[in-house]
Every structure is written in C-alpha cells, then in structure tokens.
Amino acid sequence: MCDLMPATQPTEKMGKMKKLRRTLSESFSRIAFKKDDNDFDEICVTKMSTRNCQGMDSKPLDTIPEDKKVKVQRTQSNFDPFEKPANQVKRVHSENNACINFKGSSTGKESPKLRRHSSPSSPTSPKFGKTDSYEKLEKLGEGSYATVYKGKSKVNGKLVALKVIRLQEEEGTPFTAIREASLLKGLKHSNIVLLHDIIHTKETLTLVFEYVHTDLCQYMDKHPGGLNPDNVKLFLFQLLRGLSYTHQRYILHRDLKPQNLLISDTGELKLADFGLARAKSVPSHTYSNEVVTLWYRPPDVLLGSTDYSTSLDMWGVGCIFVEMIQGIAAFPGMKDIQDQLERIFLILGTPTEDIWPGVHSLPHFKPEWFTQYSPKKLRQVWNKLGYVNHAEELATRFLQCFPKNRLSALAAMNHEYFSDLPPRLWELSDMSSVFTVHDVKLQPETGDGIKVCGKTNSHSKGSSNNQH
User: Has 255 been annotated as catalytic?
Assistant: First the structure.
C-alpha cells in the first residue's frame, strides 16, 4: 500500500508520502459548496479515489457528471417527512454522491448545525418528525393499541390523520405498526394512503397520514341499497389500480374490507391500514391463515391454507364489488368459520378435487362437515349484477374457490366491464388521480334500503389483529 514505506527510503521521499497521506485524508472529508438558484447551499461529500497514490494529486472516483445526475421531485404531495418542500430545497441524488441541503450564508461557510426536517427560516419553526408540529383537533377512534386523531400540521397547515400507537416498555413497538410504516414508506400511488411523517417518542409511535374524510363503509351506509353503477365502476377501477401497484411489488394487503378503503370528497379511493400487509418473497413463505376480516376471507384461507399469494386479496375485491352493487355484504357469516364456509359453498358450490385440486389436503377440510351444494349463477343471489353489462362475469372471475382461477388485479383492469371508461385512465402515472381525466367524476347517489358493512374505518382504529 502507498501508506507504507520502508525505513530505508530517503528522507525527502518520506516527506512526500506523509504529505500525500495528509492530502488524501483531507480529500475524503472535503466539502464543496455549490450555490443554487434559491439562495440555498448544497453540501456534497464526494468519494475520492486512491488509485493515483503514486502521484501527488488526487481525483474523484466514479464521480457522476452533472448531466447524469437524477433530480428527484415529488409530483403530488408537498408534505413529506423525508423531503423538504420543493420551494425551499432542491435535492440532487446520485449513486456516488451524498448531497445534504441547508440554508447557509452566501460566504460559503458551513452551518454550525445541520438539522433534518428543520425549517430554514427559524430554529424555532415547526419541524417534521416532532410531536409539537401537529395539533390534535378531535379523536376519530380508538383500537386495541392505537388512537387516531384528526389533526393539523403546523408546518404547512394541512389536515392529517394522527395514528398514535401506545408503546409498552415490556412489549416494545407493535410489529404491525413497524410493518405498516416500513411498507408505506415505499408505496407512492394516488390510490394508496400517503404516509407523511413518523414521530417516535419513549411512550408513543405516531404515524402521520394524509387526512381522508370517510371510507367506503361509511359511504355505503350513507347511500344504502347499492351504489350508483357508474360510481361502483370508478371505485373498483381505483381499487384495482392500487392493488396492481402493490402486487407488482410483491406486497399483499391481506385485510381488504370497506373500512380500509378511504374515500376523499372528490371520490378518490385509497387503500389504507397496511398493518397486516406482507411482502411476498420468492420463493414463497407460508403465512398465517388468521388474516382478513371473516366476511372477506377466501375459502382457501378459511380452510387453513398458509400458502397463498395475490389471489388472497382478489377474493376480497370480489366481495367488495358485490357489496357495492347489491348493497349488502356478499357472505355475512354470523357465527364462526364453519358458518362462513357454508355461506360461500351455498352460492359457489361445495368444492371437490375435480374443481379444486388439493382441497382435500387442506387442514380444515372434511367433506362430511359440509352440505353438498351445487353452484348457482351469481345474479340468482345478487340480482343487481344482472343490471350492469359484464358485472356478473367479472364478479364470477373474482369469486373462485380455487385460488389459481381468480383474476389478477392487472388483468381485471382490462376486463370488458371497464370498456366504457376513457382510455386515458390506463395511461395515468402512478401519482395521477383518475379524476384528472376529463369527464371522470362521481355521479349522484339515489339508492335506498338497508345496509350493514361493519364497524369503524381504518383511520379510526388501531388494528387488533396481531398475526404474522
């Protein structure tokens, strides 16, 4: 190595090598200031090369040219705990350059203290990541480990939902909260609820979400008897958009139900409550069969299967689709798993090895436990499916007892049921809302009747499920 020289080297050469080592040492921590257009200084710590250790000068190693740097900009939200507002800071990210931005003087001197999320205007200004940066307005609900509040950000004035998770010293942070936060940090889509901030104190962990004023369950309660068919189509398309995005990233939601689908005042649907979500690795693991609220749990999971994939979520999509159109839950089990399975088999038929290969090997399947039913046409049970073109056929493709026969989210988006929607909906970027397309809007609801869909929305509770 160029650091080591034999003791017999001439004094002059030894002096040069000491000087070289000192120069290289300083180069590794060299800070270069670069003035941007908004009076902010950008500090770039650059990796330095040691390849030229035989010479007296040092050059950067693998430095990314200016024209190759990727500038990252948020397209929808100005409220992101991991990125300063665009009108304050411009970040430049590259693979080999770590760039930190802060407001500094024009003299090129380093700020005495760099604070993440700090406001450039004043050290006392509200900051992301701080409890006192949010004002609680009202309690929305309380669950077994979390309380949810409607709140307001003191940083930018936006409404937020504060999911305050209580930490117990002997138990630590609930793993469902860790799972939800870690997954949502990587999911950026207009049909997935946006996680703005994470605040960790000794007593609590607070997840700060965008505020969405209602959910699909409450929406259906407000408009009982079945929703406007055009609105059902828009809600379903958005649900499939969000699921297709997560499934392509090998993430299963595992708790689809109307309470976990938030609805904005414009009609934008957002997947929420990822407390039971899991990343589906390849090759597959086995998972718990204690997932998904009973009414929306597929028969394979009810029968004890722990080897499932995206088809788990697609059964829930089918149940929610029927519920939106008909105005009643598709399979409202009232007792236990046995009762839930009976309700499913009554409509779809009791499975056999011929139509569901491997069903007899599932832990909870005993042929003698179930009445033998023949399958029915779905419109015989839910008549409103017959009033909408291709609705019955699409519902049938979702509600398949054999998991491998269920339609995927991506394939479902291209079903004939959606053929009358504007073609541009299929060209939207991930962060673009369907309501940015001309003539796409919610229609007035005119339904009437009796509707029961569940208890509380996902903003209003902490999940009591603790399954892996």
Answer: yes
